[in-house]
Design goal:
By secondary structure, this protein is an alpha+beta fold. Helices cover about 20% and strands about 20% of the residues.
């Protein structure tokens, strides 16, 4: 059930940890980048050793040390199979610079464990099985849901618009390693929207400089939040449907704030499978929406217009995002 809370109860702020990537439908199967680096392991690594053994043999010193510190080495020496996006030592060094800390010992064990698990996908997914789309990692979000990671194939293989696969298909007896050049940190809901090309207008709306609500700070708070996020096309349809609005800046600030708040429910992390017909959660705007799940997840706004969830269950560290095909409007 949704807990009908407002953002006034959500005042704990969090910093951005990372950028995310483009938003597209979940599938994790097609082609991968094969740009090898001379310092990286090759795709001919033997399958007679586990993922941890392969990491040790190929000088992933910091990764192995981190796995051992939080007892994940035993997990990745297990039967599996696993797919691991393995950061190089240079990738970890870059993360320390990014976070402005002088060692991984400054990162607590619980946080480090989740970051490492964010590099692990259940099952063996080789390069010929990769495709653009979201996949669940083994890292945990609110209510023990699994964090979503995005694979983008626009220019090689990118994970969360952050880590590029430098060497794919390093085989092990219990799975496969794809070497990446960045550590894949765990995004919050704002990070997900900021890095998502399909949400560029939503991001522009959330960060418009005349708003009285700091949406970035609010949606970076602890949460959890359930966010119904309109795609760029949904916003373009909204603008096209009003003869007085040609671009985002034409929408009066009071209207825009109310509309943005109407897309957020605070206090719960609601997956699509938890939605039942007739749910009427209170939004951040203060009024309710009606949600049904008879033929896909559909949201009916105060004007009787219906938005359909196109991509459900994009899980972040502080909430869940459902992409919708229409901007929903409260009673203005």
């Amino acid at each position: 059930m949704f807990y009908l809370q407002t953002f006034k109860k959500m005042n704990k702020k969090r910093n951005f940890l990372t950028l995310l990537v483009a938003f597209s439908m979940v599938t994790f199967f097609t082609a991968c980048n094969d740009d090898d680096d001379d310092d990286m392991p090759t795709t001919t690594t033997t399958e007679s050793t586990t993922i941890v053994d392969v990491a040790k043999e190929n000088n992933f010193t910091i990764l192995v040390s981190a796995l051992e510190r939080v007892d994940l080495d035993a997990v990745l020496m297990g039967e599996g199979p696993f797919t691991v996006f393995a950061p190089t030592d240079e990738a970890f060094a870059s993360l320390l610079t990014e976070l402005d800390i002088d060692g991984l010992d400054k990162v607590d064990d619980a946080t480090l464990k989740e970051i490492l698990l964010n590099h692990v996908v259940s099952g063996k997914v080789t390069s010929d099985m990769l495709s653009a789309g979201y996949v669940s990692t083994m890292a945990s979000g609110p209510q023990d849901t699994k964090i979503s990671a995005l694979v983008d194939l626009t220019d090689g293989v990118m994970i969360n618009n952050r880590a590029k696969v430098a060497t794919p298909d390093v085989m092990a007896s219990n799975g496969v390693i794809h070497v990446v050049n960045k550590v894949i940190t765990i995004p919050n809901s704002v990070d997900a929207a900021l890095a998502n090309p399909s949400f560029s207008i939503l991001v522009a709306a959330l960060t418009r400089d005349d708003l009285t609500t700091d949406f970035v700070a609010t949606l970076s708070a602890e949460g959890p939040f359930t966010i119904f996020a309109p795609t760029d096309k949904a916003f373009m349809d909204l603008l096209a449907g009003n003869m007085d609005w040609n671009e985002l800046s034409d929408i009066p600030v009071s209207v825009l704030e109310s509309v943005l708040k109407y897309h957020v429910v605070a206090g719960d992390n609601v997956e699509s499978t938890e939605i039942t017909d007739g749910m009427m959660p209170e939004t951040f705007e203060g009024s309710t929406i009606t949600i049904n799940n008879t033929d896909g997840v559909k949201i009916t706004d105060a004007n009787g217009d219906v938005a359909t969830v196109q991509i459900p269950n994009v899980q972040t560290s502080n909430g869940i995002i459902h992409a919708i095909d229409r901007v929903i409007i409260p009673q203005l």
